[in-house]
Design goal:
Residues 211-304 form the UBP-type domain. The protein is an alpha+beta fold and 468 residues long. The chain contains eight helices and 17 strands. Among the domains are: 2-205, RRM (RNA recognition motif) domain (Alpha-Beta Plaits, 2-Layer Sandwich), CATH 3.30.70.330; 237-344, Herpes Virus-1, CATH 3.30.40. The protein is elongated, with a radius of gyration of 56 Å.
C-alpha cells in the first residue's frame, strides 16, 4: 500500500526489490556511463571501519511521457541532505511516506563534508513515484535555502572496505533494534541504517532527537571551523585565553591585538600551534609563575647552569622535585586563573554597565520622545479646542445681538397687533351701533306703512272735515 500526495491509498503488489545494502553485480544500465550518473559514497565510523561504494543514478532528463525513467525501481537516492538534519528530522520530513519505506541507509557523500545522502527502498513503485513527485525540489525547511534533490537509483555497488580498528561484538547486521529490542523485520516496519552501519526501526529512531548514533555515539556533523569574530577569516587565528575572543593576527587585519588594546587581556593562544603569546612581553610564553616581589606574572626559566639541572638530566630525586614543581605550577595557575577571571569579571561588569547606561539612555530618550510627541498632540488638540471656543463665542455673541433685535421686533409686532385688534373691536362696535340704528329705522318704516296706520289716519282726516 502506498499513499499518494493527495492522501489516497493505492494497493500495488509486485516482486520484492533488492535491499540498498546488497551489492549488485554487473547491471547493464550501471555499466553504461553515458546513461547513468555515478556518485561515490562511504559509510561506517572512520575510526573503526569504512565501507566505500558507488551509486548509479538515472539522469534527470528522460524521454518518457511521464518524465520518469522507464526501467525505474522503487529505489531512490536523496542527495545533499544538510548535516544539521538529524535522523529524526529526516523521518519527520518524510511524513506519512515513512510508513511505506522498507529500508533507509544513510551514507556519506564524498567531497561534501556538510552533506549526506539517503538510499530509500519503498514497498512498491507507486509509493516511490509519489515520494518523488511530492518532495523533489521541495525545501527541507521554510527557514533555509537547501532543496531536496531526489534521483531514481539504478544500482548500488560496494567497492571495498577498510578496517581501521577492531570492531565491537555487535555486528553491522543486527538481529534486533537496540532501542526497542524487537526483531528488525521489514514486514513490521521500515529499517534505518545510520552512517555508522547501525540499524534501527524508523519509528524508534524518529524519537531520537540527538544527531549522534544511539549505539556508538558517532556524529556525522563536523565541527565548525573557527573564524575571526570580526572579519570571519579562517587563517592566522588567535584566541584570548581570558574571554575566548577569536581574532586574526597582525599579518591579517590585526583584530586580536586590537582586542588586547581594548580589554588589556594580554595572553592569546595561537590556534594553529597551541602556543600562548604575551602582548606585554611581545614573545611566546611557555610557563608562567607569579613573582614573589611584585606579584606580576613572569615566564619561568630553569635556574641551573646549562647541562647541570637534575630534572633535565633525570637525577635520582627528579621525580619528586618535578612533582613539587608541578604542584607549585598548579597553584600558580589557579592563582593566575583567579586573577584573570576577576579581571574578566570586572571587564564584563564594565561592559554590562556601559550597555545598561546606553540602554537606560535610549529608553529615556524614547520616553522623552514619546512624551514630546504626545504633548504635541495634546497641544494641537488644545489649540483646535481654543479655536472652536473662540468661534462658538463669536457665534454666541452674534446670537445674543440677534436675540435683542428680534425681541424689539416682536414687541413692535405685538403692539401693532394689539392696535389692530383694538381698532377692529372699535369698528365692530361702531358697526353694531349702526346696525341697531338701521334696524330701528326699518322697524319705524314698517310701522308707518301698515293698514291700521292708514285707517287711523283716514279717520282722523274725516273727523276733521266734519268738524269743519
Amino acid at each position: 500500500m502506498s499513499v499518494s500526495s493527495t492522501g489516497v491509498a493505492v494497493v500495488q503488489e509486485g516482486p520484492s526489490q533488492p535491499c540498498p545494502s546488497e551489492v549488485s553485480a554487473g547491471n547493464s544500465l550501471a555499466s553504461g556511463s553515458g546513461l547513468t550518473r555515478t556518485v561515490p559514497f562511504s559509510s561506517g565510523n572512520p575510526r573503526i571501519e569504512e565501507t566505500r561504494g558507488i551509486v548509479h543514478l538515472y539522469p534527470e532528463e528522460t524521454s518518457s511521457p511521464s518524465g520518469l525513467p522507464i526501467r525505474r525501481k522503487p529505489l531512490v537516492y536523496v542527495l545533499d541532505v544538510p548535516n544539521h538534519m538529524t535522523y529524526a528530522d529526516f523521518c519527520q520530513f518524510c511524513g506519512s511516506f515513512i510508513e511505506h519505506v522498507l529500508e533507509m541507509r544513510v551514507v556519506r557523500n564524498d567531497g561534501a563534508e556538510d552533506r549526506y545522502g539517503v538510499l530509500m527502498r519503498f514497498d512498491n513503485q507507486t509509493s516511490a513515484d509519489d515520494f518523488y513527485h511530492h518532495f523533489n525540489g521541495k525545501h527541507f525547511s521554510s527557514l533555509e535555502a537547501d532543496v531536496c534533490h531526489i534521483l531514481y537509483t539504478v544500482d548500488v555497488q560496494y567497492t571495498g572496505s577498510i578496517e581501521h580498528a577492531q570492531s565491537s561484538t555487535i555486528s553491522a547486521e543486527q538481529a534486533t533494534c537496540p532501542v526497542c529490542l524487537e526483531r528488525l523485520d521489514q514486514d513490521t516496519g521500515g529499517i534505518l541504517t545510520t552512517i555508522c552501519n547501525h540499524s534501527f526501526h524508523c519509528s524508534c529512531i524518529s524519537n531520537w532527537t540527538d544527531s549522534s548514533c544511539p549505539v556508538c555515539r558517532y556524529c556525522q556533523q563536523q565541527p565548525e571551523k573557527s573564524t575571526c569574530s570580526v572579519c570571519e577569516t579562517t587563517e592566522n587565528l588567535w584566541m584570548c585565553v581570558t574571554c575566548g575572543f577569536v581574532g586574526c593576527g597582525r599579518y591579517r587585519e590585526g583584530h586580536a591585538i586590537k582586542h588586547w588594546k581594548e580589554t588589556q587581556h594580554c595572553y592569546s593562544l595561537e590556534l594553529e600551534t597551541q602556543r600562548v603569546w604575551d602582548y606585554v612581553g611581545d614573545n611566546y610564553v611557555h610557563r608562567l609563575i607569579q613573582s614573589k616581589t611584585d606579584g606580576k606574572l613572569v615566564e619561568f626559566d630553569c635556574g641551573h647552569v646549562a647541562d647541570t639541572c637534575e630534572i633535565c638530566e633525570g637525577g635520582a630525586d627528579s621525580e619528586a622535585l618535578f612533582s613539587s614543581k608541578i604542584e607549585a605550577i598548579f597553584e600558580e595557575y589557579n592563582l593566575l586563573l583567579t586573577t584573570q577571571l576577576e579581571n574578566q569579571r570586572k571587564y564584563f561588569e564594565s561592559v554590562l554597565l556601559e550597555v545598561r547606561q546606553e540602554t537606560e539612555k535610549e529608553i529615556s530618550e524614547s520616553i522623552d520622545k514619546a512624551l514630546n510627541h504626545k504633548l504635541q498632540k495634546v497641544q494641537i488638540k488644545l489649540d483646535r479646542c481654543a479655536q472652536e471656543k473662540l468661534f462658538l463665542d463669536e457665534i454666541n455673541e452674534n446670537l445674543v445681538k440677534n436675540q435683542e433685535v428680534w425681541k424689539a421686533r416682536i414687541l413692535e409686532a405685538e403692539e401693532r397687533e394689539q392696535a389692530a385688534v383694538r381698532s377692529r373691536e372699535q369698528r365692530i362696535r361702531d358697526l353694531e351701533e349702526q346696525i341697531r340704528d338701521e334696524a330701528g329705522m326699518e322697524e319705524i318704516f314698517q310701522r308707518v306703512g301698515s293698514p291700521e296706520m292708514n285707517q287711523n289716519e283716514g279717520r282722523g282726516k274725516g273727523g276733521l272735515i266734519e268738524s269743519m
